[in-house]
């Protein structure tokens, strides 16, 4: 066994959609990648559709993080096999019962996008293992060319970091030749970013968004913009009065507002996942707001959560980023251990929220 390439990821989920047609649909995303690859997701559930209560699982945003796309393909296969066979699932000491599996499928939809950045995956597996961004060409004034935008800095939440953040406070760059964290020419400039925006627009029943990365290991939740606080609502990412103050750790000049109930639920669900991960082989994943890693602008988990705050007509979506395992590309037998951790966490997450009523 070895890591899947992008073609195998695509054929893998196409085969699942054929074999388990009663329990899932293949979803073709509206935008092809920069290098014109078609991107697919799977919608799992006894009933599927845009209005269904939905959790979104995304992988492969960062190309060099090879485990998450594989983990999501195998997770989909495990769930579908268990649903069809009427069985539970076991990952080490983490167990989910057959009843919980049927409850997940009966009550909600799991939208799984295993590889959001296909061109990056191909480039990382074939040319440069350290490649992180997509592969868009960025022409330079001197006639040269640099490639790629960091998709996880390209979303429309405090994207314009030079205006919104304090100087040098955020992990973001407007240098098109920065190898890792170039934010792109404008928010949501990249088709791979717009596919994820489309998922959030189209699946109006979505209430949870989990972006699977590697490798810290940790389970992060909103916000990544700054430390969080629950008592000053006007101190938020939309308020221009606080431009230039965001992103500094440990200060009180600016901290990002979060509703107390949301903070509690984000923490509860993050801890639930970390606890389940621990049962697989005893690994301890840190649980905290994403800012504890470093300040980020334009990240997808914050974008998912920010949409409701920017426009109250949009539903509230809680955002999480799992940073699985300890290395980007470990030997495959270690990758399989990490995949079990991811699967145990995401299945438990789904079982838990399958009993939550949504507005
Ligand atoms: Zn990442």
From TrEMBL:
Q: Which cofactor does it need?
A: Zn(2+)
UniProt GO MF annotations: metallocarboxypeptidase activity; zinc ion binding
Keyword annotations of the record: Carboxypeptidase, Hydrolase, Metalloprotease, Protease, Zinc
Q: Which domain of life is it from?
A: Bacteria
Kindly provide the name given to this protein in its UniProt entry.
Carboxypeptidase A
The family database entries (InterPro entries) matched by this protein are listed as: Peptidase_M14
Keyword NAD listed: no
Family named by the database record: Belongs to the peptidase M14 family.
Sequence ranges assigned to domain Peptidase M14 in this UniProt record: 2-353
Mind telling me which GO cellular component terms the entry cites? extracellular space
Catalytic site:
323
Q: Which Pfam families match?
A: Peptidase_M14
One biological process term from GO is: proteolysis
């Amino acid at each position: 066994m070895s890591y899947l390439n992008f073609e195998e990821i695509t054929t893998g989920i196409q085969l699942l959609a054929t074999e388990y047609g009663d329990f899932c649909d293949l979803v073709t995303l509206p935008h092809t990648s920069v290098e014109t690859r078609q991107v697919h997701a799977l919608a799992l559930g006894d009933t599927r559709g845009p209005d269904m209560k939905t959790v979104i699982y995304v992988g492969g945003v960062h190309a060099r993080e090879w485990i998450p796309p594989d983990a999501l393909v195998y997770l989909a296969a495990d769930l579908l096999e268990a649903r069809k066979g009427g069985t539970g699932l076991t990952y080490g000491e983490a167990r989910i019962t057959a009843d919980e599996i049927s409850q997940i499928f009966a009550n909600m939809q799991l939208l799984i996008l295993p590889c959001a950045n296909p061109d990056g995956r191909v480039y990382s597996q074939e040319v440069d293992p350290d490649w992180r961004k997509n592969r868009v060409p960025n022409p330079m004034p001197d006639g040269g060319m640099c490639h790629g935008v960091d998709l996880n800095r390209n979303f429309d939440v405090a994207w314009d970091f030079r205006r919104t953040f304090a100087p040098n406070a955020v992990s973001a760059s407007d240098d098109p030749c920065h190898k890792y964290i170039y934010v792109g020419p404008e928010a949501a400039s990249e088709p791979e970013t717009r596919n994820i925006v489309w998922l959030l627009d189209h699946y109006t029943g979505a209430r949870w968004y989990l972006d699977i990365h590697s490798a810290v290991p940790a389970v992060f939740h909103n916000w990544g913009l700054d430390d969080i606080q629950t008592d000053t609502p006007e101190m938020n990412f939309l308020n221009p009065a606080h431009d230039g103050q965001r992103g500094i750790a440990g200060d009180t000049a600016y901290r990002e507002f979060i509703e107390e109930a949301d903070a509690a639920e984000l923490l509860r669900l993050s801890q639930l996942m970390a606890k389940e991960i621990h049962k697989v082989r005893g690994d301890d994943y840190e649980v905290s707001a994403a800012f504890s890693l470093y300040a980020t602008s334009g990240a997808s988990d914050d974008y998912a959560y920010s949409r409701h705050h920017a426009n109250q007509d949009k539903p509230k979506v809680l955002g999480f980023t799992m940073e699985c395992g300890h290395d980007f590309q470990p030997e495959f037998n270690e990758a399989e251990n990490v995949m079990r951790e991811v699967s145990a966490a995401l299945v438990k997450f789904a079982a838990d929220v399958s009993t939550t009523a949504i507005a």
